[in-house]
Amino acid sequence: MFSIEKILNSFHEWLSSMLNQNMVMLLEMALIAFFAITLFATLGLVLVYLERKVSAFIQIRKGPNRVGPFGIFQTTADTLKLIVKESFMPDSVDKFLYQLAPFIVMITAMLLLAPLPFARGVQIWNINIGVFYVTAVSSLSVIGILMAGWASNNKYSLLGAMRSGAQIVSYELSAGMAILSIIVLTGSLNLQDIIASQENGWWIFKGHIPAIVAFVIYIIAVTAETNRAPFDLAEAESELTGGFHTEYAGMRFALFFLAEYINIFIVCAIGATLFFGGWMPFHIGNWEAFNHVMDFIPSSIWFFGKTFFLIILIMWFRWTFPRLRVDQLLNLEWKYLLPISMLNLLVMTLIAIKGWHF
Amino acid sequence: MRNVVDTTPEGNMVLNVGPQHPSTHGVLHLFITVNGETILNLDPNIGYIHRSIEKMCESLSYRQFIYSTSRMDYLSAHMNNHGCALTVEKGLQIEVPERAEVIRVIISELTRLASHQLWWGSLAMDLGALSPFFYAFREREMITDIMEETCGARLTMNYIVPGGVMADIHPDFQRKVKEFMVQFKSKIGEYHELVTDNVIFQNRTKGIGKLSKEDAISYGCTGPTARGSGLSCDIRKIYPYSAYKNIQFNEIIETEGDSFARYMVRMREMEESVHIIEQLIDNIPEGEFQAKTKAVLKLPKGEFYTRLETARGELGVYIVSEGGTTPYRIKFRSPGFSNLSALNHMVKGHKIGDLVSVMGTLDLVIPDIDR
Questions:
Q1: Of the ranges A34-38, A289-293, B175-179, which is most confident?
Q2: Following DSSP, what letter does each residue of A20-34 receive, concatenated?
Q3: Domain range B13-370, its CATH number among 1.10.4160.10, 1.10.645.10, 1.10.150.120, 3.40.50.300
Q4: How many C-beta atoms surround the C-beta of residue A45 within 10 A?
Q5: The pLDDT of residue B1
Q6: pTM of the predicted model, to two decimals?
Q7: Per the CB < 8 Å rule, is A324 touching B200?
Q8: Burial code of B290-324, b = ≥16 C-beta within 10 A, e = fewer?
Q9: pLDDT computed for residue B5 by the predictor
């Protein structure tokens, strides 16, 4: 059976047999950094292309279809254009913060790639508080956005940044609650343990209705957290002309843009891991034969399949819904989602204690 | 021009919306005073696209000046031309042939449909839903094709002239219009599914930008904006002109006065326009498409005024003639200008996001305001 884990292990042993331990570690760190940056760039390109194709499908258009077969090199060409574009900086900005902001947003997104289990045994950093790490680090990106909005010295940017601040801080609560309701079932913050606990079925099927409620709340909350429509108030093109990145151009803008897509990938990957078993194939209880057949599909395909399913779901939201107003956005969180998710967490805890889940 | 200031003396932020802003749909400039996100005051600053069309018309003959009016409210180009033609015909007392009258009404209603479809798409886009725009353009494209065949242009169209219409309709005209109506009727449900019934859309528009009937009258609002407040002001119904005298149609009135009411008026008006075209498309009388007129038109000395209903409201055309070949003075009463004046009243106390939705439901066309 095909497995990346074996390849990686034999590669590690091959390196260890030739070099001393410190050298192996350094070399592997460099390779992983290279891998993370490559993944960052590739995912950005793929997701932007995917979004353009999904939007074209919804909007009865063809989408990019000129550069390369089916336009697959369109986003590459766009990125090249952004790289060579003059990095224009307005006169009245706070120069240090203005230049720093896109990097903070990008680095936050890249840090989040670390604990993701891409396939069976493939994980950059198997940290025992993986879920906690993700929720903690993902909240840092708001600093970059606030910084960009403030440093731009533009009223629209400032309004966008303030909206974004209020929005991310609020929606993190219900995203956290939704994540917690799976944690009480697994009893572990380690992502590998969470996946292992879904050996006999995914939590969305095993956890009764509270798991489905938690999933719905999670998807709504992360859509808001990544500033995607219908919660894209921080950008709000028709109101704030671009919000926090109004004054950014060229590659600095592209970093914000790519970071947004990486963030979508990460939240969808976490959602897939928590609710759909990550790389765990589709298993049903003790149907040995069925489970065995499912195991033949490589675990990386399961992981990326589930993640991209959620990504397309979020893209579908974006291209069909109008935008909420800022007070409606906060009402939705504080008056509906948060109480529901708190109650849901209580019910889930009861289920976990009584052992009612499958 | 006003001085551009950062804050008011009270310490509230002044935000310049426009002249280059995605949701003003043109070069409208709004000074808005905001406290956080709440709008305290709004002050429109117009004139960025003033081309002095009225003054230009004074040196053009009565046949020529009509063409510049297509550049006023470019989405109701035919209706603008119609208004001018009606005024000139009134002055010269020209009998317009039946055929021309019917063609004029069909063309006007098609223009209204195209205008409302564009409005529907751009309103949804202002509210953050980008897809409806493409759905609106799918049907609008069919009208634009019909217009292209009929008068040769897709925007800034000119077809209605004093005495009738410029040329006879294309042989395919009736078939294409019928095709369009079949397509439109099958898709109007999609419009409602996609936007009208959406909970977020209803939350964004219901109870927002209230305009009472009394305020609508005092601000001089007309068209769908005023009819959304329960004011009966459809010129087609009150002072029927052309073939509107002989056809059955309802004046669409909603009483709520909020953004959603204005939205519903326009949506229902689209269906009513289709209803009007249906009555006429098979009954275009045979005969001349243009009355016999002199080569050079000379209006008798005096003042002439006509009004008609464009897609945005009441358009008034006022001509003062000294008896020469060119008008002495021309004044257009454009619907957009009066509707814009009510904006401050409507958005006070609302959020910046609401400004966009209210402005969207006013259906402003900036060249119509500035002329």
A1: B175-179
A2: -HHHHHHHHHHHHHH
A3: 1.10.645.10
A4: 19
A5: 46
A6: 0.85
A7: yes
A8: beebeeebebeeeebebbbbbbbbbbbbbbbbeee
A9: 65
Specify if A64 maps to a domain: no
Give the closest-approach CA distance of A327 to chain B in angstroms.
9
pLDDT of residue A311 exceeding 60, the answer is yes
Interface test with B, best of A158, A315, A323, A324 (most B CBs within 10 A): A323
Residue A154, domain member (yes or no): yes
pLDDT at A37 over 70: yes
Any residues with CB less than 8 A from the CB of A145 and at least 6 apart, and which? A101, A105, A161, A164, A165, A168, A227, A234, A244
Q: Which residues in chain A have Cβ-Cβ distances shorter than 8 Å to B131?
A: 55, 58-59, 319-320
Establish if A332 touches chain B: CB-CB under 8 angstroms. no
Could you list the residue range(s) of the whole structural domain that residue A124 is in?
Answer: 85-354
Q: For residue A307, is it within any domain?
A: yes
How many CB pairs (< 8 A) connect A and B?
84
Model ipTM?
0.80
Domain ranges in chain B? Answer: 13-370
Q: At what angle do helices A208-225 and A299-320 cross, to 10 degrees?
A: 60
Summarize pLDDT for A177-232 with one digit per residue, the tens.
Answer: 888 888 888 888 888 888 888 877 787 877 778 888 888 999 998 888 888 878 88
Query: Domain for residue A233, yes or no?
Result: yes
Within an 8 Å CB–CB cutoff, is residue A237 touching chain B? yes
> B202 φ, ψ to 5°?
-65, -40
Q: Tell me the pLDDT tens digit for each residue of B199-225.
A: 888 888 888 888 888 988 999 888 898
CA A63 to centroid of chain Cα atoms? 24
Structural domains in chain A (count) = 1
Between A98-102, A331-335, B138-142, B293-297, the lowest mean confidence (pLDDT) is in B293-297
User: Which residue in the set A60, A229, A322 is minimally distant from B201, CB to CB?
Assistant: A322
Task: Identify which of A59, A163, A322 has the shortest CB distance to residue B200.
Answer: A322
